[in-house]
Amino acid sequence: MDASPTTSTSRERLFETATRLFYSQGINATGIDTVIAEAKAAKGSMYHHFRNKQALVEAYLQGQVAEWKRKSEAADVPTLSPPERVALLFSSVESDLTSGTFHGCPFTNAMVERPEDASIRSIVTEYRRTVAEHLSHLL
Question: In this predicted model, what pLDDT tens digit does every residue of 3-20 receive, in sequence order?
Protein backbone atom coordinates (compact mmCIF):
# COMPACT_ATOMS: atom_id res chain seq x y z
CA MET A 1 0.00 0.00 0.00
CA ASP A 2 1.47 3.38 -1.00
CA ALA A 3 1.75 6.03 1.66
CA SER A 4 0.18 9.37 0.92
CA PRO A 5 2.47 12.41 0.81
CA THR A 6 1.06 13.60 4.14
CA THR A 7 1.90 10.36 5.99
CA SER A 8 5.34 10.19 4.40
CA THR A 9 5.98 13.75 5.46
CA SER A 10 4.86 13.14 9.04
CA ARG A 11 7.06 10.02 9.25
CA GLU A 12 10.04 11.99 7.93
CA ARG A 13 9.40 14.83 10.38
CA LEU A 14 9.10 12.41 13.29
CA PHE A 15 12.28 10.58 12.26
CA GLU A 16 14.30 13.77 11.65
CA THR A 17 13.12 15.35 14.90
CA ALA A 18 13.86 12.20 16.90
CA THR A 19 17.29 11.97 15.29
CA ARG A 20 18.12 15.55 16.26
CA LEU A 21 16.75 15.28 19.80
CA PHE A 22 18.07 11.80 20.62
CA TYR A 23 21.53 12.87 19.50
CA SER A 24 21.62 16.31 21.13
CA GLN A 25 19.66 15.61 24.33
CA GLY A 26 19.93 11.85 24.75
CA ILE A 27 17.49 9.02 24.25
CA ASN A 28 16.36 8.76 27.87
CA ALA A 29 16.02 12.54 28.29
CA THR A 30 13.83 12.89 25.20
CA GLY A 31 10.20 12.04 25.73
CA ILE A 32 7.99 10.87 22.92
CA ASP A 33 5.60 13.77 23.51
CA THR A 34 8.48 16.19 22.89
CA VAL A 35 9.32 14.46 19.61
CA ILE A 36 5.67 14.58 18.52
CA ALA A 37 5.28 18.26 19.46
CA GLU A 38 8.52 19.41 17.81
CA ALA A 39 7.76 17.37 14.68
CA LYS A 40 4.33 19.00 14.55
CA ALA A 41 2.79 15.58 14.12
CA ALA A 42 -0.28 13.93 15.53
CA LYS A 43 0.17 11.29 18.22
CA GLY A 44 -1.70 8.88 15.95
CA SER A 45 0.88 9.47 13.20
CA MET A 46 3.67 8.61 15.59
CA TYR A 47 2.12 5.28 16.50
CA HIS A 48 1.12 4.58 12.93
CA HIS A 49 4.75 4.85 11.78
CA PHE A 50 6.56 3.64 14.91
CA ARG A 51 4.86 1.21 17.29
CA ASN A 52 6.56 2.82 20.32
CA LYS A 53 9.58 4.84 21.42
CA GLN A 54 11.79 1.76 21.20
CA ALA A 55 10.96 1.39 17.50
CA LEU A 56 11.78 5.06 16.95
CA VAL A 57 15.10 4.65 18.80
CA GLU A 58 15.94 1.63 16.64
CA ALA A 59 15.06 3.57 13.47
CA TYR A 60 17.25 6.46 14.66
CA LEU A 61 20.26 4.20 15.23
CA GLN A 62 19.75 2.31 11.96
CA GLY A 63 19.57 5.69 10.26
CA GLN A 64 22.88 6.62 11.89
CA VAL A 65 24.48 3.45 10.48
CA ALA A 66 23.17 4.31 7.00
CA GLU A 67 24.34 7.92 7.34
CA TRP A 68 27.83 6.81 8.42
CA LYS A 69 28.02 4.49 5.39
CA ARG A 70 26.89 7.29 3.08
CA LYS A 71 29.32 9.85 4.49
CA SER A 72 32.29 7.50 4.58
CA GLU A 73 31.71 6.31 1.02
CA ALA A 74 31.26 9.90 -0.19
CA ALA A 75 34.51 10.94 1.51
CA ASP A 76 36.52 8.16 -0.12
CA VAL A 77 38.84 8.83 -3.06
CA PRO A 78 39.76 5.41 -4.51
CA THR A 79 42.73 6.81 -6.47
CA LEU A 80 44.55 7.74 -3.24
CA SER A 81 46.88 5.36 -1.38
CA PRO A 82 45.39 3.31 1.48
CA PRO A 83 46.95 5.53 4.20
CA GLU A 84 45.66 8.65 2.45
CA ARG A 85 42.17 7.12 2.20
CA VAL A 86 42.14 6.33 5.92
CA ALA A 87 43.43 9.82 6.73
CA LEU A 88 40.66 11.30 4.59
CA LEU A 89 38.08 9.29 6.53
CA PHE A 90 39.42 10.67 9.80
CA SER A 91 39.51 14.22 8.47
CA SER A 92 35.76 14.00 7.92
CA VAL A 93 35.42 12.88 11.56
CA GLU A 94 37.54 15.88 12.55
CA SER A 95 35.14 18.25 10.79
CA ASP A 96 32.26 16.73 12.78
CA LEU A 97 34.23 17.26 16.00
CA THR A 98 34.96 20.91 15.26
CA SER A 99 31.49 21.80 13.99
CA GLY A 100 30.22 22.75 17.43
CA THR A 101 27.36 20.27 17.18
CA PHE A 102 29.27 17.14 18.19
CA HIS A 103 27.67 15.31 21.12
CA GLY A 104 29.74 12.15 21.03
CA CYS A 105 29.29 8.91 19.16
CA PRO A 106 25.56 8.17 18.88
CA PHE A 107 26.24 4.44 19.28
CA THR A 108 28.36 4.82 22.40
CA ASN A 109 25.80 7.26 23.80
CA ALA A 110 22.99 4.77 23.19
CA MET A 111 24.91 1.94 24.86
CA VAL A 112 25.68 4.13 27.88
CA GLU A 113 22.03 5.13 28.21
CA ARG A 114 20.61 1.65 27.64
CA PRO A 115 23.31 -0.93 28.38
CA GLU A 116 20.89 -3.84 28.76
CA ASP A 117 18.97 -3.20 25.52
CA ALA A 118 19.61 -6.14 23.18
CA SER A 119 18.24 -4.43 20.08
CA ILE A 120 20.52 -1.41 20.60
CA ARG A 121 23.46 -3.74 21.21
CA SER A 122 22.66 -5.50 17.93
CA ILE A 123 22.60 -2.23 15.96
CA VAL A 124 25.85 -1.09 17.60
CA THR A 125 27.43 -4.42 16.64
CA GLU A 126 26.25 -3.86 13.05
CA TYR A 127 27.78 -0.37 13.09
CA ARG A 128 31.12 -1.66 14.41
CA ARG A 129 31.16 -4.40 11.77
CA THR A 130 30.41 -1.79 9.08
CA VAL A 131 33.29 0.43 10.25
CA ALA A 132 35.71 -2.51 10.42
CA GLU A 133 34.70 -3.69 6.94
CA HIS A 134 35.10 -0.19 5.53
CA LEU A 135 38.54 0.25 7.08
CA SER A 136 39.59 -3.17 5.76
CA HIS A 137 38.38 -2.14 2.31
CA LEU A 138 40.37 1.11 2.49
CA LEU A 139 43.52 -0.74 3.54
Answer: 444 555 899 999 999 999
